[in-house]
Each structure stands twice: as C-alpha cells, then as structure tokens.
Write a structure and sequence with these properties.
Elements lengths: L33 E5 L3 E4 H14 L5 E4 L5 E5 L12 E9 L4 E6 L3 H12 L6 E5 L2
Helix pairs in contact: 1-2
C-alpha cells in the first residue's frame, strides 16, 4: 500500500471541490508507450491504486513494465461511528491522491499495444474516475 514515509503535518485540510480544471504537468507519456489518462477530476485512494496495479499485473502475467505516475500524499481523516461533536479531528483513515483531468495515472511498455490497452481498461474499472488509454504507437 502506498503511503508517505513522513509528513510535515499529520492531518491536513481536504479542500473537496477546490481541485478543479485541467492538469498542467504530468499530461504526456514519459516512460512507457501506452498510458491511462484521467478524463475527470477526483481523488484516488492508495487501495484503489493498488487494486488497479494488481489487475494490470495479473492480466499481463508479470510481463512488460508498469509505472505508477501518481502518489497518495493527502491524509483523509474520519471520526468513529456515533461520536459526539467536538473533541477534535478524527484519526487518519487513508491517503489519497488528487487527480486533475488530463493527468497520466499509469504507463506501460514492453508488450503489444492491444494487450496493454486491455490491461489498462481493466485497471480503469478499479478507479472512481473516468479514464481513457492513450498511446505513442
């Protein structure tokens, strides 16, 4: 599971709804020849990234190479069920990555384009945002 080793502040503000617009960086294929690009804005948790990675790795039978281009830096807190108001912020439940539209999430190389695109399609079903596969072929 992806998680930061060290943070300056353990808990942070969420800023839900403020992450809008399109990405300026990380919008082109850098490492691989086929990639999975986000079409809409949202948050992806570390568990969802891991589930998508496992789906791709299982489909390609550990062939080729996969790059994960996003990292979940932002902590998300949650209070326990039926806890009264007050008494501070809840405990950290998970870490999420803010994704803007146009960000490349995964890249692949070392196998045929059809096989790569099918693996990325399976991975996109594990993610909460709409994605499309792009290629350099």
């Amino acid at each position: 599971m992806l998680e930061p080793k060290k943070l300056k502040y353990r808990k942070s503000h969420r800023f839900r709804g403020r992450v809008t617009g399109t990405a300026k960086n990380g919008t082109r294929l850098t490492f691989g020849s086929v990639g999975l690009k986000a079409i809409e804005t949202g948050e992806i948790s570390a568990r969802q990234i891991e589930a998508a990675r496992k789906a791709m790795t299982h489909f390609i039978k550990r062939g080729g190479k996969i790059w994960i281009r996003v990292f979940p830096h932002k902590p998300v807190t949650q209070k326990a069920a039926e806890v009264p108001m007050g008494s501070g912020k809840g405990n950290i439940e998970k870490y999420v990555a803010d994704i803007k539209a146009g960000t490349i999430i995964f890249e692949m190389d070392g196998m045929s384009e059809e096989l790569s695109k099918e693996a990325l399609r399976l991975a996109s079903h594990k993610l909460p945002i709409k994605c499309k596969s792009i290629s350099n072929y």
